[in-house]
Amino acid sequence: MKRTFLVPIMVFIGVFCLTAQTISGFDSKKYQDLLVRVDRELSVMETDVAAEYLIQKRDPGGATSSTRATVFRRDAKNQFLVLILEPVVDKGKGYLKLGDNLWLYDPVGKTFTFTSAKERFQNSSFRNSDFEPSHLSRDYKPVTAERGKLGVYDCTILDLEAVTKDAAYPRMKIWVSDDNLVRKREEYSLSGAIMRTTAIPAYQKIETKWLPASMVILDHLQSKTINGKVEYERTTVTISKPSLKALPDTVYTKDYLERVAR
Predict the structure, then answer these.
(1) 136 contact partners, CB below 8 Å, separation of at least 6
(2) Is 200 exposed, middle or buried (0-12, 13-18, 19+ CB in 10 A)?
(3) Domains annotated on the chain, with CATH
(4) Digits of tens for pLDDT over the chain (262 positions)?
């Protein structure tokens, strides 16, 4: 079951709404509760999540590359494992997150090295932290709210400020449709410079939970002017073959990653 956008994707990346109305009498608790509901829809605490990710990057000017990976998540313990399947040159590389620790595995040297959740995944606009479930209510507080439209969706638009060191960005703006799903994110530096824009044009429902089916990310830090027009690095993420089947504890170990990477 999927919920898809009914208008062109650039509407969601560019002109976000035709009208917006600031909400008077801002109630921070009300909108913090909304973040809790968003996290609840997009996190799976009862079992594991498995899916296949296809991450396609287009550089400004047209050069393209793609990565296909299998991803396993255990949200209740803040764990995930990513195994790269393609391209062939990177096959067998993997990422293992256990709590606050994230390792990158190189099958050639058979070595694990620490890396950061904020690093770019395979040099794309997708970040390692994007494999994690939603932690908005933990990492951010709402500071302003307004109502507006994003394509066909009536949305609550929230400006967020980070309250933990784990937050991926110091500031963020999100568009939350009335079914508690994030339809668009704008991520900012502490100085207010925009860094990424992410549109989520489709969700898929797995039993009672939602998982993005596709995402489009523009990296505002990777740009080039071509024929008088600014082009940004664009990464498209397609998530398929989702499953909520419980997995053995051994999946989230270095031994398992070494074994399946052979």
Answers:
(1) 35, 38, 39, 160, 174, 182
(2) buried
(3) 2-260 (2.50.20.10)
(4) 554 444 445 545 554 444 555 555 678 999 999 999 999 999 999 999 999 999 999 999 889 999 999 999 999 999 999 999 999 999 999 999 999 999 999 999 999 999 999 999 999 999 999 999 999 999 999 999 999 999 999 999 999 999 999 899 999 999 999 999 999 999 999 999 999 999 998 999 998 899 999 999 999 999 999 989 999 999 999 999 999 999 999 999 999 999 998 8
Of 200, 221, 194, 223, residue with least CA distance to 212: 200
The CA distance from 137 to 36, in Å, is 5
- Decide: pTM greater than 0.70: yes
